Amino acid sequence: MLWFKKNSAQQTNKVGDVIEPSQLRVNYDESICRHKLQMLLNQVQDKGGIDEFIQALANKQVLFQRVLNQDAIDSLNMESIEALLDTIFTARRKIPVVIATIPQDLLVKQIKDLLYGDKALQERMQHFVDLFENDNRKIKRAAWDFAAELLHFNDPEKYPHMSRWVWNAEEVSGAYREFLAGGDSLTEIPIGAAPGDFEATRIWFAQQLGEQGFYRDIHFIIDLLIAQAYAEYVLGMSKGMGMFGSQFGATETEPLEFLVKLLGIDPPRKAGLTRLKKAVVH
Q: 65 CB contacts (<8 Å, ≥6 apart)?
């Protein structure tokens, strides 16, 4: 088993979670993984290489750890929360309107409990989602992604990326199915939604990358690899249905462009501008 080891130069968060991997009940296709990896490497070759994208993810990690580490989290404020949310593509247009209705002290407490509470991890994630009292399923899904990214980028070596685009067990959709032979025709895929299911798959990816000679920054390379697979899927589907422009505000987008949006490492807006969708006050 290939473990994710701490870089001594990185912030170490004192969290008691130990995510035990579940039994892997699917056979991911090694040749598909190699192909997706090569596609990724080809795409980034003229953009500074993969190290450039790993550094972008590391910079996002620094942003999260700066305000979420245990010594600083009690000073967390709405401005900092919105700065983090601005980097979460699948949540930044849906969540801001809702968090504006939640008292700041309650929101900070819930974030602290999510990251450092003593209850089971999945229970803490669901408790965080329940804070967003809204019957809109899109809001609930965005809240889950918000929780998933807070965990992952505060401590990316401990927590696998558990956003819905990575894997949504309820809808049997997400990046993971792109690594299954014939995945587009499968109606049932035995991958659960527990943290251990995500960890089991992450270990499989780490083993594949190790066989390809990658041994550093594995957690970020896995992020890039699964985002590459999902970007290919989304663009293929949306372009085929003629819906990409209306949904994402572009007439033509390449996988790499969507990949950086998906991971929240696209270039920030000019100073004073935000990508958050907030309520309009009349």
A: 10, 11, 13, 153, 154, 155
